[in-house]
Write a structure and sequence with these properties.
By secondary structure, the chain is mainly alpha-helical. The protein is built from 6 helices and no strands. One of its GO terms (molecular function) is mRNA binding.
């Protein structure tokens, strides 16, 4: 388990300076990993995917929708480290060129606000 986690974190660190063709062979194992693992290992795999998705050109919309299913599920996580990585990966995916804004508005934002937005005060002077 530790080897997988360290490998995923190393891939996340390496993804930034390189292009996607350097990572073609590991995309499939990463996708299996985010669907299979939970906890700290999932955090490492999500971090790696978060750095690789912006490198994609052709299939960025498809892969973003696939990873968003996992990210939306993890919106309800009680683990603060998981929430921080989830927010970072959501930011990376939504700021990537080629991601449909309508998809973000209809499928991601309602769940995001439901799980992350807390209104501090009630009353007209706090609006």
């Amino acid at each position: 388990m530790k080897v997988r986690m360290i490998t995923a974190l190393a891939l996340a660190a390496l993804a930034h300076p390189f292009r996607l063709d350097s990572f073609d062979s590991i995309v499939e194992p990463l996708w299996r990993g985010i669907k299979l693992h939970r906890g700290k290992l999932l955090v490492a795999f999500l971090k790696a995917i978060g750095f690789i998705i912006p490198l994609m050109d052709v299939h960025v919309s498809y892969y973003t929708k696939e990873v968003m299913l996992i990210l939306i599920r993890e919106f309800t996580s009680k683990d603060q480290e998981m929430k921080m990585i989830v927010l970072k990966v959501v930011k990376q995916c939504t700021s990537t060129e080629g991601v449909d804004a309508e998809y973000i508005r209809t499928d991601v934002l309602p769940e995001f606000f439901l799980n992350f937005w807390e209104r501090d005060g009630i009353g007209p002077k706090n609006l």
